[in-house]
Write a structure and sequence with these properties.
This protein is of the alpha/beta class. The protein is 32% helix and 18% strand. The chain contains ten helices and twelve strands. The strands form three sheets. An eight-stranded mixed β-sheet has the order 1-2-5-6-7-8-9-10. Strands 3-4 form a two-stranded parallel ribbon. Strands 11-12 form a two-stranded antiparallel ribbon. It starts with 18 loop residues before the first strand and ends in an 11-residue tail after the last strand. The structure holds iron/sulfur cluster.
Length: 330
């Protein structure tokens, strides 16, 4: 818990320890994040993870952050008239590792009308109690990035005891039981899972899981490992027809009508600590002109508090180590 990064100032200029954003989501709009684990606490160590390498690889489900504190922060945020398109359980690690994540979802369902989205790597969905807790969400997105145990180890580097067989079994069972919308995200990497031969084998597993929607993604944000390289957009489009029903390539984030959220150096750094973003994405989230954002980026880069990494056709900015402790309240 001590490693949990400080929270982000929200629309009402409050600081929380377990809420962040709203941040841009390429799939679901502006998302208020609920972070239920210490930084990089996960059952996987994916080569493409935008948060870097997993520091606490575990399958131990526990109350990693105090449930009552998270509920109190959510209550406060709701009372402060927070606005978001979706509330997402995600953040610094795998949310279903938190033993009470279902209680958080149930609270949100009972106390607001904002849809609740659970992002999970799917490694615990073979457990009936996890499926039951997850089923309270409006939407669940789980992952599939491999076609056999060897490719699973290569791409996702699982904790001991975590198998692709259980992941597929759990996701298939959840898909059958879940009354909400179940998304399957298939993450593809150039030279690792980019040939039609291999992607067909992933598609066969996706057919067993039978989600409502299958979405193809690739490493458009700076990954944990240099060798996790993005597929070109054209190749992604060529692969969608291998899935039945046809998959979709996830579109770039579009902000639409952003609420009037004021940004400052602290809020930008805190957001970039959680998720690398382009200048355009920062502008969309905070409803700022790009020129204004570039001033912040210039200053924060010059003072070493953020770094830019060229990825695809954009530069993604992330917070430097220790950036949040420089004048940022915990
Ligand atoms: S991408 Fe998700 S599942 Fe994979 S290591 Fe990162 S947090 Fe864990």
């Amino acid at each position: 818990m001590a490693r949990n990064a400080p929270g982000v100032v929200t629309a009402m200029a409050k600081t929380y320890n377990h809420l962040f954003g709203p941040v841009p989501s390429r799939r679901f709009g502006r998302s208020l994040g609920v972070d239920l684990t210490p930084f990089k606490t996960c059952s996987l160590d994916c080569t493409f993870c935008q948060l870097g390498q997993t520091t606490q690889k575990t399958t131990a489900r526990d109350e990693y952050v105090p449930t009552q504190t998270v509920l109190a922060e959510l209550k406060d945020w709701l009372e402060a008239d927070g606005q978001a398109d979706v509330v997402t359980l995600a953040g610094s690690g795998e949310p279903t590792l938190h033993s009470n994540f279902g209680e958080i979802i149930t609270f949100l369902r009972e106390n607001c009308s904002i849809p609740v989205l659970l992002l999970t790597n799917g490694t615990f969905l073979h457990l009936p109690e996890v499926r039951k807790a997850a089923s309270a969400a409006h939407m669940v997105k789980a992952s599939l990035c491999a076609w056999n145990e060897d490719s699973f180890c290569c791409v996702n580097r699982p904790c001991a005891g975590v198998t692709l067989e259980n992941l597929v079994r759990g996701e298939a069972a959840f898909s059958q039981e879940f009354a909400g919308t179940f998304y399957l995200e298939v993450f593809l990497l150039w030279g690792i899972s980019s040939t039609p031969h291999d992607v067909k084998r992933i598609a066969a597993l996706a057919a067993e899981i039978a989600p409502d929607h299958t979405q193809l993604n690739t490493a458009v944000r700076p990954p944990a490992e240099d060798f996790a390289v993005a597929l070109p957009q054209k190749r992604m489009q060529d692969l969608v027809a291998l899935f039945s029903p046809e998959a979709e390539v996830i579109a770039e984030f579009s902000a639409g009508e952003a609420p009037d959220i004021q940004a400052n150096e602290t809020t930008i750094i805190a957001m970039l600590k959680r998720r690398p973003c382009t200048a355009k994405q920062i502008a969309a989230v905070f409803n700022m002109h790009l020129n204004e954002v570039s001033k912040y980026i210039g200053k924060l880069t010059r003072t070493g508090r953020i770094n830019g990494v060229q990825e695809g056709n954009g530069t993604y900015y992330s917070a430097s180590d220790g950036a949040l402790t420089e004048g940022t309240p915990e």
